[in-house]
UniProtKB/TrEMBL annotation:
Protein family (similarity comment): Belongs to the NAD-dependent glycerol-3-phosphate dehydrogenase family.
Pathway given in the UniProt record: Lipid metabolism; Phospholipid metabolism; alpha-glycerophosphate cycle
Organism expressing this protein natively: Scaptomyza caliginosa
InterPro entries per record: 6-PGluconate_DH-like_C_sf (IPR008927), 6PGD_dom2 (IPR013328), G3P_DH_NAD-dep (IPR006168), G3P_DH_NAD-dep_C (IPR006109), G3P_DH_NAD-dep_N (IPR011128), NAD(P)-bd_dom_sf (IPR036291)
Name assigned to this protein: Glycerol-3-phosphate dehydrogenase [NAD(+)]
Regions that span the bilayer: none
The protein's enzyme class: oxidoreductase
Catalytic activity: sn-glycerol 3-phosphate + NAD(+) = dihydroxyacetone phosphate + NADH + H(+)
Length: 183
């Protein structure tokens, strides 16, 4: 809900040839119902292209300089290269894919699966059950994207934004810890 207001503050203060990139892992409620991707909201309000960056990169580990990798979803190859060059470092590997919507949806849906993993941990149901929750969650993520964002590539789910971020969040993420604490 804060994105449109924030974009209004930026309007007229950024160059018309700027590129936005969203690191927000979630959805917003669309006007008229349904869900809206944050990158789509940014593009509509700022009238510039918006790429997305998602992946198995827990903030504290990135800050400590630990190796991690990420996925940038960007439909424009030229912009994708610029963004990769901007973010890539020795400890931060960047892969650019043109499947931006799927990259963004992975970043949002993995949090739901992580809640399930946290409940499994809280109930002490074991690693086998947790693995099943993660596997089934990944399958549901793929189905969701197939239904609501047709044309996405299965290979995107095998990038850092997909299975790697899902595993990281289901073992070390905030959503998992909060869900475990509720049991």
């Amino acid at each position: 809900q804060f994105i449109p207001n924030f974009c209004k503050q930026l309007l007229g203060k950024i160059k018309p040839n700027a590129i936005a990139i969203s690191l927000i892992k979630g959805f917003d409620k669309a006007e008229g119902g349904g869900i809206d991707l944050i990158s789509h909201i940014i593009t509509r309000h700022l009238k510039i292209p918006c790429a997305v960056l998602m992946g198995a990169n827990l903030a504290n580990e990135v800050a400590e300089g630990n190796f991690c990798e990420t996925t940038i979803g960007c439909t424009n190859k030229k912009y994708g290269k610029v963004l990769r060059d901007l973010f890539q470092a020795n400890h931060f590997r960047v892969v650019v894919v043109d499947d931006a919507d799927a990259v963004e949806v992975c970043g949002a849906l993995k949090n739901i699966v992580a809640c399930g993993a946290g409940f499994v941990d809280g109930l002490k149901l074991g690693d086998n059950t947790k693995a099943a929750v993660i596997r089934l969650g990944l399958m549901e993520m793929i189905r969701f994207v197939d239904v609501f964002y047709p044309g996405s590539k299965l290979s995107t789910f095998f990038e850092s934004c997909g299975v790697a971020d899902l595993i990281t969040t289901c073992y070390g993420g905030r959503n998992r810890r909060v869900s475990e604490a509720f049991v």
